[in-house]
Amino acid sequence: MANGGVVTLLTDFGLRDYFVAAMKGVMLSLNPDLVFVDISHLVPPQNILSGAFTLGQTWALFPLKTIHLAVVDPGVGTARKAIVATAGGHLFVAPDNGILTAVMESQEDFKAYEITAGHYFRKPVSDTFHGRDVFAPIAAWLSRGIPAEQMGNRLQEPVRLKMPVAKKVREGLIQGAILAVDIFGNLITNVKPSDVPPAFRFILPGQREVTVIRRTYGEGKPGELFIVQGSTGYLEISLKDGSAAALLDLKVGAPLGVAAV
């Protein structure tokens, strides 16, 4: 007997092709009572770090027992493992490539199991589309009450990304980086308000600086670059009525400094 439940989907598959619909079709065939929530399908292609960041910002906002299906999988068809994980009362289905890093770092009860129970897979299994043939059916069977530990043996050391962390270089200087870029072109840094002194400035590549601090996006002046605390809890670089990422030509991973003034 199928039970209802929420499955979130996070991928880099985009919105043009059939990939996401195929995954949902497989899951609905096994459990027609599922409710789907699309976190995003516009993760930059093959960008596992971006996927990990996005999942980390969203998963805990969903009800307990939600199943999170995260497929950013440049290693599909290789020796990389597939995993089911439990943490914080939620379930996760993903490749073992670090996309669950933010969950691992925030939840002491994180447990991962290598998916080896091939009888739950859709057959035949494509070497290039495990999202449809491995991860989607596993998520659906979990929603029907199959326990995570039945999918395979406990995995003691799942892959963990080295998430960029702001570091103090010397007195009055912090080294940070761009952690993410949102659809508006806001540059989300890995620097939190608690990391910075009362008066500070961002130093960007090319000896550029951002010194203006605003409380909201709307407080910026037309064409002004400014720093604002975003909803993620990190400081952001924003451009009033424009894209800071485009103006500054900065991408995820770009370094920055935070200096006291």
Main traits of this protein?
single chain; seven-stranded mixed sheet; eight-stranded antiparallel sheet; 2 domains; Rossmann fold; alpha+beta; Elongation Factor Tu (Ef-tu), domain 3
Order of helices and strands: EHEHEEEHEHEEEEEEEEHE
For the record, the CATH class of the largest domain is Alpha Beta
Strand content: 25-35%
Shape: elongated
User: What is the radius of gyration?
Assistant: 20 Å
Determine the structural class based on helices, strands and strand pairing. alpha+beta
* N-to-C span: 64 Å
The number of distinct β-strands equals: 15
Runs in which pLDDT lies below 50 for 5 or more consecutive residues are none
- The overall number of domains is 2
What is the averaged pLDDT score?
Answer: 95
CATH superfamily of the largest domain: S-adenosyl-l-methionine hydroxide adenosyltransferase, N-terminal
- The total of helices stands at 5
Could you characterize the architecture of this molecule?
The model has no long low-confidence stretch (mean pLDDT 95). By secondary structure, the chain is of the alpha+beta class. A hairpin with a 5-residue loop joins strand 9 and strand 10. The chain starts with a strand and ends with a strand. The chain has two domains: 151 residues, S-adenosyl-l-methionine hydroxide adenosyltransferase, N-terminal (Rossmann fold); 94 residues, Elongation Factor Tu (Ef-tu), domain 3 (Beta Barrel). Helix 1 packs parallel to helix 4. The strands form two sheets. Strands 8, 9, 10, 11, 12, 13, 14 and 15 form an eight-stranded antiparallel β-sheet that branches. The chain has a seven-stranded mixed β-sheet with strand order 2-1-3-5-4-6-7, with helices on both faces.
